[in-house]
Amino acid sequence: MIHWRSGTVREVTSSRAGAVRLCVDVDGTDTPALALTDLVGTPQVGDTVLLNVSALRRRLGTGGHALVVADATRLPDDPADAPGHIVKARYTPLQQMVLALEEQESPHHDAMREHPDIAAGDLRRMPVVVAELHSALPAVLAGVRAVAPQARVGYVMTDSASLPFALSDSAARLVEAGWLDTTITAGQAFGGEHEAITVHSALLAARHVLGCDVVVVAQGPGNAGSSTTWGWSGLSTGDVLNAVHVLRGHGIAVPRVSGSDPRPRHRGLSHHTSTVLSRALLGEADVVVPDSPHEPWPLVSEQLLAAIAASSGSPRPVTRPVDDVAADLASSPVPLSSMGRSAQEDATPFVTAALAGRHAASLLALP
User: How confident is residue 222, by pLDDT bands cut at 50, 70 and 90?
Assistant: First the structure.
């Protein structure tokens, strides 16, 4: 189900690599729109554009704008001929042809096929921080940088939520700020510095081809939920943690928490995290929570222990002090906001993310 509209570009309100924001006149109404330039080119003032307004009409959190499907006034230039035969967003009208790290035309193909640790599927205990929400990414990085500012950090974006990497303003700014050394879009996601066919390949390439010390894995913007046990996009964090375990990495789960969410199922330790730990995790993973007597942390610790007791895997609770976390979060080059609430309104989800980053960095043996 797609709601289509056509309009005229009135203003280019902002631009960055991979995306421009527009004000489009649709039947006399100013409509915010986003054009992903690698897909549809760069619309200009006066151009007629075709819009998908479905998410905007439903006022979805990540859908605060229409998406430009095509510029009817000008076609984008054809890209230069380049290697790559892996198709992402497959069999949709905007499918992408990319060069994946693994494929035969890639300069990394021989390493991906012949490197002994990649062939064996061995991350050699590389710390991998796995978060459900995209909004956790800057806080995790803040924690890593506080302990190991020299660490080389990669981000693997899964395809559980948005597919285009360019949709994320925060990821683009983290790259610009030098907080991310490399990015990989895995599965059907596309547009990172590197592409991978699977999360497994993405992790192995990050460690053994791209030289990462730490990797953060999270879906892109656009988390989907249904208030049911199994129907939410972040359930894939269990699959990622299992992949890290299979590949002999050191998995670190970011528990999703909230001290102010109006929905009881997300208050304290979210039922999402409880489900991953108690029913989806099959291997080992550290779960970092604050060592603090202040609410909601005693409740979170109690909920965490209950989830661990029911687990078929081996989640390990790790407690860390929170003394310096506020300074970590204040250093972020991007605003911290999760589920519509800023860090000033509810710091708890960013505290656990930063502590997970600190824990990951503490495991490194860097000079």
Answer: very high
Q: How far apart are CA 122 and CA 111, in angstroms?
A: 14
Give CA–CA dist 141/167, Å, rounded.
19
CB of 172 closer than 8 Å to CB of 154: no
CA distance 268 to 138: 21
Q: What end-to-end distance do the CA atoms of the chain give, in Å?
A: 54
How far is it, in rounded angstroms, from Cα 325 to Cα 216? 18
Q: Is 320 helix (H, G, I), strand (E, B) or coil?
A: strand
Rounded CA separation 33/29 (Å): 12
Mean pLDDT of 90-116: 96
> 66 near 51, Cβ under 8 Å?
yes
Alpha-helical regions (H) of 41-166: 54-57, 109-114, 116-120, 137-147
Q: Per-residue pLDDT tens for 241-278?
A: 999 999 999 999 999 998 777 676 767 899 999 999 99
